[in-house]
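Sample A.
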Amino acid sequence: MSDRQPSACLSGDRLQLWAAYFEAVQLPGMTALASIPEGYSWDGASIPRWAWSIMGHPLEGDLRLPSLIHDWLCEHSTTPADRMVADAVFFLLLSRAGVPRWRRICLWAAVRFYALAIWRPKR
């Protein structure tokens, strides 16, 4: 993972990339690749408004790269295994961004719950 941040601007309640962004995230036994085009937009970390006072705002700086890569990988997941990799990448990037352990565990648990209980692969 690089130390650079994606160039993005606020567009309403979403972030939008100013320039294409590429990231290769090394996981045990594999590399997850994200090649994201200019103009892609995402909503930051999907933290419900009622939880902002505890978890923080979804667009905070330390959540931007992890949420960008996670959203991109999730949108392109076609199997439960793909989605599990996306969630693992999210957890790793949160750790590398310096997000406190309690917070990254809560954020990761929320995305895993969503993946197991609600998410369905695209057909």
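Sample B.
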Amino acid sequence: MIPKHTAIIMDGNGRWAEQKGMSRIFGHQNGVAAVKKIVEAANKFNIKYLTLFTFSIENWDRPQSEVDTLMSLLVQTLKEEFEDIFRNNIKLNAIGELDTLPDNVRDELYSIIHSTKNNSGMTLTLALSYGGKQEIFKAVKEISDKVKNDIISLDNFDDSLINDHLYTKDLPDVDLLIRTSGEQRISNFLLWQVSYAELFFSDVFWPDFDENHFDKAIKNYKKRERRFGKTSDQIKN
């Protein structure tokens, strides 16, 4: 079975570039090309939801020149890829503390989100200025405020209530989480949503990650037995 929702931590741009004696910016530029390939592959594989960890909330602490370049690359990519996104019936979505993005990034992002809102194909979600702990904190605070103001009751407190207050409220939980570059950690990405995800770690740096590597991850996923706390016999029966 194809994973309904695949999320990817796109790691290794900088190290890929350094191995080639190039700047980190060169790595990010080639990382953008890899994004295009993987979005096309995900659409081809009939994945319904694809979420990409594009810029973490911790990434704001990187050198300002690198941050500025990443933001410029994002705007440029959104402008250049809009026609393909729309033509392929892809619905663009974004999660994170979007208010912290530069105005030009946010304007371009919201414009494409609005233009593709009625598309019925794959939902492509960009996690921007995103942190999993921060997302959960925000949800808990909003729920606490509503309980305090008698908008909701603690009697109705369950998983679905938390889900409804997350950035990903319109997305299903993650089935497959991929991380490139050989690192094996989640890095504050979709902490609530990956609780039962299958994890796949690739040694390939993100700029070199292509359709064949993606296909390998999908095939590996298909071999997994997803038990969700049950036994193998329960799943089989």
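B remarks: The radius of gyration is 19 Å. Residues 64-87 form the longest helix (24 residues).
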